């Protein structure tokens, strides 16, 4: 096929049929769109049944950095165990979390670009788990394939199989091991990655209960810029949660025993909590100096979208200076008054608190929320004078290779839509082992994502670059290398992608975790 050409909105949104190029052509039409919600918030709010914690009463925790168990000339080795832990989040109760090392968030791993990282994961939880390094450029056998499971300690090799996965027909028996070794070559740019559970059919409840952590990749290009670092570099994992009457995380699972996946019918669009946690703390406060801070912001919610703004805005606006996206540094910084994040997206921003009066406070708010979900956290600015030798270059931040859509060898269309009981891609429930595309390594392709509802679309193996939305320009938050793109209801997004290095099977899916668990996932197979 020749390079990608613009297409009309009518044709793109499937008035008629949408052709899919790949291993066998199929035609998929979209349903009527009149009843769909507008852009904003998918999902249904799950109200807590306990008194909610006071806002801005606890200090922002910073996840600890995990140290290697050993290192050699090429590799750092880590060991992580998923196990229950307890934390105090709501008045009068402790909350059990399922955490890496028993913590939520799990410990942060820091890797050096080009230096191999090997992580051995074990499981002391009552159900099987799997681990995906989100944003990682990894071989397929370390990608966290959802049927490559880690057995509970002492739990043998049982796990969800074909007969247990209602709505997901044709699956073979899961491959369950007592531990799994994930080998990450780290041949990729500096970026904010994260690792989280990826268990077949149960990613939503597992991540909701705490199985998520940061994995930061650093390189010389980034280190040379003089960006804020050390205590002025804050990872911020934002996640909404609700609480049951006993203080536990409330989740509307169809089957808490984890035989049948999915959520109750009212929550098929997604589960929304009424408490906003940042690094596992409800509406926390971060004491900051009158200096520049680097905020690595991750939306780790199951379904909630955010529009984050500083309140008040600094004089002149543009208080959120974006320097990076999912796949690392942008070519140039971009100033925003607000940023919009779908689940799994990351924004790397610099905030200069010297633009505010000494002793003042600034809230990070969510303009897509209401009541408590409109509040995220607060920064309390010190009154003392401090030195700040950090900087953000006003010109070029990094060299960013541009993929040329005119060099695309294929165009593939993926339609994300609801079936009677599940969410589907190209009209099909997910079936392990069935590939919807077979791209060749090293070749540029155009992938089109078309939606009926709101779907944050995530690609494994390699990042992509957004080319257009509805045949117009890319959006304000689409810059740089992305691995997750926010596709709004009745919208089409075109991306340029080039898969490299690793042949094998990888995943494409919606990162609304309720949608993912209810079959909105597909495989593609890369080949030489």
Using DSSP, what is the number of strands?
A: 38
Question: Mean pLDDT, rounded to whole units?
Answer: 91
Number of helices: 4
Helix content: under 10%
Note down, in words, how this protein is organized.
The structure is a single chain. This protein has four helices and 38 strands. The protein has 528 residues and is mostly beta strands. The strands form nine sheets. The chain has a seven-stranded mixed sheet, with no helix packed on it. The two termini are 19 Å apart.
Q: What is the topological layout?
A:
Layout: H1 9-12, E1 18-20, E2 26-28, E3 44-45, E4 70-71, E5 75-87, E6 95-100, E7 106-112, E8 116-123, E9 131-134, E10 148-150, E11 175-177, E12 180-184, E13 191-197, H2 203-208, E14 212-218, H3 220-223, E15 233-241, E16 271-272, E17 275-278, E18 281-282, E19 285-288, E20 292-299, E21 306-311, E22 320-325, E23 328-336, E24 338-341, E25 346-352, E26 361-366, E27 375-381, E28 411-418, E29 423-425, E30 435-437, E31 444-451, E32 455-459, E33 464-469, E34 472-473, E35 484-487, E36 492-498, E37 504-510, H4 513-517, E38 521-526
Which characteristics define this entry?
six-stranded mixed beta sheet; 528 residues; mainly beta; globular
Sum this structure up briefly:
The chain is mainly β.
């Amino acid at each position: 096929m020749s390079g990608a050409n613009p297409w009309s909105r009518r044709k793109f949104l499937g008035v008629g049929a949408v052709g899919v190029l790949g291993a066998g052509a199929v035609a998929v039409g979209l349903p009527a769109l009149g009843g769909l919600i507008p852009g904003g918030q998918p999902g249904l709010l799950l109200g807590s049944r306990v008194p909610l914690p006071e806002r801005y009463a606890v200090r922002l925790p910073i996840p600890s950095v995990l140290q290697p168990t050993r290192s050699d000339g090429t590799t750092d080795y880590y060991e992580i165990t998923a196990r229950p832990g307890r934390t105090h989040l709501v008045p009068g109760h402790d909350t059990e979390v399922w955490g890496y090392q028993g913590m939520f968030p799990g410990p942060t791993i820091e890797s050096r670009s080009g230096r191999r990282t090997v992580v051995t994961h074990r499981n002391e939880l009552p159900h099987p788990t799997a681990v995906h390094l989100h944003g990682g450029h990894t071989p397929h056998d370390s990608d966290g394939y959802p049927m490559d499971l880690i057995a509970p300690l002492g739990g043998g090799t049982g796990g969800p199989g074909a007969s247990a996965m209602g709505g997901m027909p044709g699956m073979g028996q899961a491959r369950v091991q007592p531990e799994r070794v994930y080998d990450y070559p780290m041949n990729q740019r500096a970026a904010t990655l994260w690792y989280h559970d990826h268990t077949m059919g149960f990613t939503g409840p597992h991540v909701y209960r705490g199985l998520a952590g940061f994995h930061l990749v650093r390189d010389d290009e980034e280190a040379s810029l003089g960006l804020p670092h050390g205590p002025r570099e804050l990872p911020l994992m934002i996640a909404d949660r609700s609480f049951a009457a006993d203080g536990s995380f409330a989740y509307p699972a169809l089957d808490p025993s984890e035989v049948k996946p999915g959520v109750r019918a009212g929550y098929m669009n997604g589960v929304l909590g009424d408490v906003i946690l940042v690094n596992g703390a409800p509406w926390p406060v971060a004491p900051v100096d009158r200096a520049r801070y680097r905020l690595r912001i991750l939306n780790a919610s199951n379904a909630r979208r955010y529009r984050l703004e500083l309140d008040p805005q600094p004089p002149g606006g543009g208080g959120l200076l974006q320097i990076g996206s999912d796949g690392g540094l942008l070519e140039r910084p971009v100033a925003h008054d607000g940023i919009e994040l779908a689940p799994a997206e990351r924004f790397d921003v610099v905030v200069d608190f010297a633009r505010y009066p000494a002793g003042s406070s600034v809230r990070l708010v969510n303009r897509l929320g209401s009541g408590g979900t409109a509040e995220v956290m607060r920064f309390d600015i010190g009154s003392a004078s401090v030195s700040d030798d950090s900087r953000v270059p006003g010109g070029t931040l990094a060299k960013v290779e541009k993929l040329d859509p005119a060099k695309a060898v294929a165009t593939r269309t993926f339609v994300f839509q609801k079936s009677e009981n599940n969410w589907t891609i190209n009209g099909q429930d997910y079936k392990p082992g069935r590939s919807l595309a077979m791209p060749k390594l090293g070749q540029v392709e155009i992938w089109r994502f078309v939606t009926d509802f709101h779907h944050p679309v995530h690609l494994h193996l390699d990042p992509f670059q957004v080319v257009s939305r509805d045949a117009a320009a890319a959006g304000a938050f689409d810059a740089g290398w992305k691995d997750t793109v926010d596709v709004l209801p009745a919208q089409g997004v075109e991306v340029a992608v080039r898969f490299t290095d690793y042949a094998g099977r990888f995943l494409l899916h919606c990162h609304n975790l309720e949608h993912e668990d209810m079959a909105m996932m597909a495989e593609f197979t890369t080949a030489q």
